[in-house]
Design brief:
alpha/beta, Rossmann fold, six-stranded mixed β-sheet, binds adenosine-5'-triphosphate, binds magnesium ion
Length: 255
Amino acid sequence: MVAVTDDKLVMRDLSVYYGGFQALSSIDLSIPAGAATAVIGGSGAGKSSLLRSLCRMNELWDDVRTEGQVLLDGQDIYSPGVDVTEVRRRVGLIARHPYPFPKSIFDNVAYGPRVHGIRHRHELDEIVKRSLKQAGLWNEVKGRLQDSALSLSPGQKASLCIARALAVQPEVLLIDDPAYNLDPVSVAKIEDVILELKQQYTLVLATNSMQQAGRVSDYIAFLSEGFLVEFGPTSDVFARPKDRRTEDYITGRFS
Ligand SMILES: Nc1ncnc2c1ncn2[C@@H]1O[C@H](COP(=O)(O)OP(=O)(O)OP(=O)(O)O)[C@@H](O)[C@H]1O
Ligand SMILES: [Mg+2]
């Protein structure tokens, strides 16, 4: 029988340089489909760089060089002729500072679908409703969709940015530091949404919180100084880390 791979994204010998500085070093990592993978590691380990490299967002900076391959369903997203807009639709990134556009709640969520040519009001209404529901925000905002998104609380803004990413029907969601600067209630809400979303999407989360990684992820990738040290099911990595550096990190000894 031919082996079927369930990996949604496969990094092969992936390196990222900012000018002369190498932020990721020869990463070989496969992200399982339909599960949540947490990328953990200290500040500067390369977590955000890794997430951005999965949707060609590193290229937004000058002087960035990416080497190696990132296969999305077996196709290298860095090969010539690839439609970058389509890659970014299929692989959505929710950045650490999720800023809504200075537009209404409705227009924020409808933004992506409109860019992709959806014009009918009825269709947009449906997409906005579905996306806000999936992001756990619908009940709070359904009576005020025309209000400015900037009037929302920080936790609601983070949820809105998840809804905005969902509106273009991505296949993969990359969420950079979902707990960043949020109160514990908002964090718990977003983690509940993440647990729901992973039933349907492939998720990759960058997080500095071991507790969060333990609560929401199925797999863990541990990065240190741009290198992938360890990858495995979350329960295995927590219970029996293979590498001393992983053990030190998850037990809080940063030697
Ligand atoms: N645009 C950039 N230009 C130059 N260097 C960068 C850039 N982005 C990141 N770096 C450097 O690359 C390394 C990895 O950064 P990255 O932001 O990926 O780490 P991180 O693991 O996400 O850290 P944090 O937990 O603080 O978010 C760091 O040394 C950082 O200073
Ligand atoms: Mg980061």
